[in-house]
Design a protein that fits this description.
The chain folds into three domains: 61 residues, Orthogonal Bundle (Arc Repressor Mutant, subunit A); 96 residues, Periplasmic binding protein-like II (D-Maltodextrin-Binding Protein, domain 2), CATH 3.40.190; 102 residues, 3-Layer(aba) Sandwich (D-Maltodextrin-Binding Protein, domain 2). Helices cover 43% and strands 25% of the residues. It is built from eleven helices and 14 strands.
């Protein structure tokens, strides 16, 4: 297979347009269509469903795309390895991370890396949801949720303890719970899908149902509600660490239970060759979070 044709296939898959892909490489839609047809003939399968108004990947095209990404990245690494000069990290790094962690930790770190590596470009998606990084072509995902079994590669970056916290104003008005049973008497600020909070009790995980007047779809919103004194939140250290240091929030410790612990993970597609820019980000995150 011609790597130029694979590059064209990736462009078509990204732009969902023969014309747009052609403009990227300076070719007419007719030429692009012929080269795509030749690639499909070589593979013996149809890669795109094409009509006069739309273009979309077939299931075979969806399956083929991550392999194309891997081949093109391997080519890029090979060229970089043979380069006679050290030019630092290059290419585009596509990253996804949770909103709060992204704003507070990842963006400042990426800025430092980009200053040191002017040829590096970053495409960052901040989302509290779990994105399909293979289908979306993302190089690396930073996750703080428990990992689900998959064929993806994961690297543990740091511990990320869960913490119960409230604002000083809330505690001054309503006090703080000392035991797990007393927590039931306080309004709890919940993320959607977390009607139960996990605690370690006598060495085992116990999920406790919590209620309260406020729930939200993002960590940002729950944190803001907690700062406003609406109740008690269960969040993670890296989401509120600076607020705890400034005493804008206060940690709450229970005598008979500890919030279950999480970790911060770097997750990336299962590929034989991991781009240097991905390895560099993983190592930089490990160093920053440990520090």
């Amino acid at each position: 297979m011609d790597l130029n044709d694979l590059t064209l296939f990736k462009l078509i898959a990204t732009t969902r347009s023969l014309s747009a892909a052609g403009r990227r490489i300076g070719a007419t839609p007719m030429v692009v269509s012929r080269r795509l047809a030749a690639l499909e003939h070589e593979l013996g399968t149809r890669l795109f469903n094409r009509t006069t108004r739309s273009l979309s990947l077939t299931p075979e095209g969806e399956s083929f795309l991550p392999y194309v990404d891997s081949l093109l990245e391997t080519q890029e690494e090979a060229i970089a390895a043979l380069s006679p000069t050290e030019q630092g990290l290059a290419g585009q790094l596509k990253v996804t991370a949770p909103n709060v962690f992204g704003h507070s930790i990842l963006v400042p770190l990426l800025a430092e890396i980009m200053v040191a590596n002017p040829a590096l470009k970053v495409d960052l998606t901040l989302s509290d949801g779990v994105l399909d990084i293979v289908r979306t072509g993302i190089d690396i995902a930073i996750r703080v949720a428990p990992l689900q079994p998959s064929e993806l590669i994961s690297a543990r970056l740091a511990d990320n303890p869960r913490i119960l916290c409230a604002s000083p104003a809330y505690i001054a008005r309503f006090g703080r719970p000392d035991t797990l049973s007393e927590l039931a008497n306080h309004p709890c600020l919940r993320l959607h899908g977390m009607s139960e909070w996990p605690f370690i009790v006598d060495g085992e995980v116990k999920r406790v149902r919590v209620v309260g007047p406020f729930s939200a779809s993002s960590v940002d919103a729950v944190r803001s509600a907690c700062l406003a004194g609406l109740g008690i939140a269960m969040t993670t250290y890296w989401d509120v660490g600076k607020l705890l240091d400034r005493r804008e929030l206060v940690s709450i410790e229970l005598a008979d239970a500890l919030p279950d612990r999480l970790a911060i993970w770097a997750v990336y597609p299962s590929r034989r060759y991991t781009p240097p820019r991905v390895r560099a980000l993983v190592e930089a995150l490990k160093e920053r979070l440990t520090r």
